[in-house]
Amino acid sequence: MRIQESGEMYLETIFLLLQKKSRVRSVDVCTEMGYYKPSVSRAVSLLKDGGFITSDKDGYLSLIESGLLIAQKTYERHTLLTKWFETIGVSHDTAEEDACKIEHCISDETFEALKSFLNKQS
Fold it and tell me: How do the pLDDT tens digits run along the chain, 122 residues long?
């Protein structure tokens, strides 16, 4: 199943929140993303139905393998693109913003070529 950009953003946010704290609920995602609870509840429901996350009886969210892989891939793209943009002179805020847009539409082929190129430059 192909996931939309917004789904990738939610998975990445859950992933990053789980790095900071051991348990994450929808309300944490609302706070982090600045979205209203109904929007997050709808997204969480879609991600559960799509087989990307689960929640326990207390509402704590967990990434399952498919969701974790997408979250890690999205985060890797975000961090590498941000670092690259900053290296070529883009301000941190603009680099973050642009990386967030590009991380969802760059092809695997292009990203891997860019990653390989940057690794050779280091």
Answer: 578 999 999 999 999 999 999 999 999 999 999 999 999 999 999 999 999 999 999 999 999 999 999 999 999 999 999 999 999 999 999 999 999 999 999 999 999 999 999 888 87
3-state secondary structure 72-108: HHHHHHHHHHHHHHHHCCCCHHHHHHHHHHHCCCCCH
Q: Which two tokens stand for residue 33?
A: 């993303």
Q: What is the pTM of this model?
A: 0.92
In one-letter notation, the amino acid at residue 83 is K
Closest to 61 measured CA to CA, from 12, 16, 8, 18: 18
Name which of 25, 6, 5, 3 is nearest 14 in CA terms. Answer: 25
| Domain 5-69 sits in CATH 1.10.3470.10 | no
Identify the three-state secondary structure at position 60.
strand
Angle at 99 between CA 108 and CA 65, to 5 degrees: 50
Domain edges within the chain: 5-69, 73-121
